[in-house]
Write a structure and sequence with these properties.
single chain; 7-stranded mixed beta sheet
């Protein structure tokens, strides 16, 4: 079992910043890609940013230049620094992690989600 716990969401005015964090725990043998996804009301969940264990990153076009994803492999954490926030960034943000458990079973786990609301 692998659990992900997110923190850092909230309400911010347009142009402001927030930092999301996610900690993975449980029977982790190896963490591969970690990432952030978001789901706005009435829309499908979409990729925001991902990062590999080696530090390679991938961003949605809509957040490039404004958001930065990072991870701490020693602590099994991933963070998302969000700057220049826009009302259209309002969504529930979910952390995702893929890897293998101590029994060498592959997993893809999701956090419970954290609300980010950007007011205009």
């Amino acid at each position: 079992q692998v659990q992900l716990v997110e923190s850092g969401g909230g309400l911010v005015q347009a142009g402001g910043s927030l930092r999301l964090s996610c900690a993975a725990s449980g029977s982790i043998f190896r963490l591969n890609a970690m990432g952030w996804y978001r789901q706005a009301p009435g829309k499908q969940r979409e990729l925001v940013a991902t990062i590999t264990s080696g530090g390679s990153t991938n961003y949605a076009d809509s957040v490039k230049g404004r958001f930065t994803i990072s991870r701490d492999n020693a602590r099994n954490t991933v963070s998302l620094q969000m700057n220049s926030l826009k009302p259209e960034d309002t969504a529930v943000y979910y952390c995702n992690a893929e890897g293998a458990t101590t029994t060498l079973t592959r997993f893809s786990s999701w956090g419970q989600g954290t609300q980010v609301t950007v007011s205009s």
